[in-house]
Amino acid sequence: MKQILVRYINIILGAIVAAFALEEFLVPANILDGGIVGTSIIISSITPISLSILTVCLNLPFVLVGAKQLEKSFLPRTIVAMGVFSLFLEIFNRWHYDATYDALLATVFGGLILGAGVGLIIRNGGCLDGTETVAIMVAKKTSLSVGQIVLVCNIIIYLIAGILFGLDRALYSLLTYFITSRIVDHINTGLDQGKAVMIITDQGRVIAEDIYKTLGRTVTFLSGEGLLSGEKTVLYCVITRMELPLIRKIIEKDDYSAFMTISDVSEIIGHHIKNSESKIYTKL
Hints:
Strand order of the largest sheet: 2-3-1-4
Radius of gyration: 23 Å
Largest sheet: 4 strands, antiparallel
Strand content: 5-15%
Low-confidence stretches: 275-284
Number of strands: 4
Structural class: alpha+beta
Mean pLDDT: 82
């Protein structure tokens, strides 16, 4: 219950942050987000219908269709995210603070803040835009990836924005999309990004057991031979960025003369992650 409560608190916080970014940075400068939210901004600008109502009305059908293909907990989390998002869009709209009208400042800071909010929601298993759920369904039946489908949809939206608001606004919107995407990716994978660690040592068994006791991760043993130092044990292990300081302490304690290299891992396939973490990821 505590984990569920924390997850929903993060979703609510992310929705508030995303609503703030839209109403106080992007909308006043006629800069669009992508997907259904971007479509809602366009319709809201040429009709008397408020943005808060449009985001719910346009998103809900896509979410309901997509929820049938996804996990059961996805639907309530997404409904909470969209409900809070819509509510605070209306609140911030009536607040009339408008952080800046400068297009470049709105693009950069709006994209950063929006990415932080959306990333927090996605990290906790929710969603703000129905386009992504439809993209997941389409990707299963075609050779296109989810990212490619979303990008095509957004390009169409930005072309419409260019016609209505001018080419410069379309370009600013596209830049906002890329900034937001990077922040979302960083929030979802940055802290948990895989790191491949290779350790060359004379105390392979001791270090491997210490890593397993401390981090709960197994290690692969390889045989190596140095030109001058002779036979060595080579340990290979994949960890997260947050676990690097612990690995360093283990090396310093067990074999201060060990040689260690660290490299980024772009993709991980298989069940290398600890049981406690894998349970959390599968629940997402």
